[in-house]
Amino acid sequence: MSNHFKAADIPQISATFRFQWEEAQGCHVLLYPEGMVKLNPAAGEILKRCDGINSVDLIIKDLKSAYPDADLDSDVYHFLDTAYDNQWIRHKSA
Amino acid sequence: MTTNGSDTSLPKPLWLLAELTYKCPLQCPYCSNPMDIARYTDELSTEEWIRVFKEARALGAVQLGFSGGEALVRKDLEILIAEAHELGFYTNLLTSGVGMDEARIKAFKEAGLDHIQVSFQASSEELNNYIAGNNSFEHKLEMARLVKKYDYPMVLCFVLHRHNEDQVEQILEMSHALEADYVELATTQYYGWALHNREQLIPSQAQVEAAEAVAHRYQEKYKGKMRIFYVVPDYHEARPKACMNGWGAVFLTIAPDGTALPCHAASELPGLTFPNVRDHSIEWIWNDSNDFNKFRGFGWMKEPCRDCSEKEKDFGGCRCQAYLLTGDATNADPVCSKSPHHEQMVKLVNQANSESKRDTAPLVFRNMRNSKKLTAHKWSTTSKA
Questions:
Q1: pLDDT tens string for chain B (385 positions)?
Q2: Which residues does chain A have within 8 Å of residue B92's beta carbon, measured at their own beta carbons?
Q3: A22 → closest Cβ in B62, B65, B114
Q4: What are the domain boundaries of chain A?
Q5: Angle formed at CA B182 by CA B263 and CA A83, multiple of 5 degrees
Q6: Contact A36 B60 (CB under 8 A)
Q7: Of A39, B93, B101, B266, which has fewest CB within 10 angstroms of its CB?
């Protein structure tokens, strides 16, 4: 499934990044010192739910209710690994 | 609106650099501020800066750098940070650390400051203090520790030149010990003060190659822990830097008196009108002013740039460098080996390689006294803005 996350893990945006909607870009972005990552719609929808409250299985459940036709379990786990490797997200600290 | 032949849609000023003041307790002889800093006494007010932030944000600006001079000199910095944060900017404080203390670091955090970049002049106290022109090294170390204590992402910035180029290993070990998240190994850019001091600052080819090798080794060593940005010194290269990612493409600099510039060195170029935020909106300055359209796109280019397959990669290099070294801002940046003026760059680096040419004159430090002395000719004409 994932190298970094299990269903019960709670991901959250790293302290060194800020996640927000940018109207002028028409997309969600991650901001960091003197830089910006523009996110595609799927990445934005996942990261929006990485709020330090919801576990991965709840995030997937919520995404499925918003996008009922998508088979997205493996996509979500895959993206969370990518986001982790880029240091965008971390496990919520206890 | 003209775009000088570019058919791409109009870019947005993603990066707003607010040069709040040119006052600075440091005297670095490679300072990126213009040499006539002493003339910028009429600084924008708190309210004027806030209007600039609002207008730039509405145009799509998202990164805001508080810079100078030394931004900490401005007593209203906490207010400006809070306003910028409220507007949704990612706020960066670019500072020497001189003028900061724990109370201010805490107040900035409460105001919503996202990131602090602390500049050092070297990894040794002696050289740091010599280049900075004051005894700031110990204080900077203390400030770097406090920046981490208050959970800011921290960038440490070192401008490299002949005198500290051999310290890269010590610089990176020191940065790691201070828990830096990012280290910027910047290179001296030869405009203004640095151009004046070029003979004393330019490193040899051997120094540059050794520094680059150390930087690459440490990028591997601290992978995932500390990101190291190594800026290649363009004088020693055969292709120019993609200066500012293109003219009027991403960067908007506002000088302390409200002058808007496509880059912080552009005030040296002839033929610009220097629109001021006191007279014009940011929208007009960015979209419609002569200055911001002058080298936008590719229509202004001459050969060898015009038909060059790499023009979309480096935009012909730097307009200021082309003007300062060839006398014509529409020429190719002479760093490029395709430029008919490239030979002079080779000569400059060869001179730097030759020990006998070294240290022929003392460094001229960046301060108001030297500014007045060196730009006296400008003072007799009409005042700026």
A1: 333 433 347 899 999 999 999 999 999 999 999 999 999 999 999 999 999 999 999 999 999 999 999 999 999 999 999 999 999 999 999 999 999 999 999 999 999 999 999 999 999 999 999 999 999 999 999 999 999 999 999 999 999 999 999 999 999 999 999 999 999 999 999 999 999 999 999 999 999 999 999 999 999 999 989 999 999 999 999 999 999 999 999 999 999 999 999 998 998 899 999 999 999 999 999 999 999 999 999 999 999 999 999 999 999 999 999 999 999 999 999 999 999 999 999 999 999 998 655 556 889 999 999 999 999 876 555 444 4
A2: 33-34
A3: B62
A4: 11-86
A5: 105
A6: no
A7: B101
Count CB neighbours of A65 within 10 A: 8
For B37, residues 6+ apart whose C-beta sits below 8 A from its C-beta are B22, B69, B366, B368, B371
Give A35→chain B minimum CA distance, Å: 7
Specify the fold of A11-86.
Answer: Arc Repressor Mutant, subunit A (1.10.10)
ipTM of predicted assembly, 2 dp: 0.88
Burial of B71 (0-12, 13-18, 19+ CB in 10 A): buried
How is B173-228 classified by DSSP, letter by letter? HHHHHTT-SEEEEEE---SHHHHHTHHHHPPPHHHHHHHHHHHHHHHHHTTTT-EE
* This model's pTM is above 0.90: yes
For residue B151, give the chain A residue with the closest CA: A15
A89, containing H or E segment:
strand A89-91
Q: Which of A81, A73, A83, A90 is nearest to A40 (CA)?
A: A83
Tokens for A8, please give them: 């019960």
Contact indicator for B138, B125 with CB cutoff of 8 Å: yes
Partners of residue A18 in chain B, C-beta under 8 Å: 90, 114
What is the token pair recorded at B323? 């003007």
Answer whether B92 touches A (CB < 8 Å). yes
Which residue from B198, B203, B188 is spatially nearest to B325, judged by alpha carbons?
B198
Nearest CA in chain B to A34: B63
Q: Side-chain half-sphere of B68: how many Cα atoms within 13 Å? A: 26
Q: Which of A23, A24, A33 sits opposite B155 (nearest CB)?
A: A33
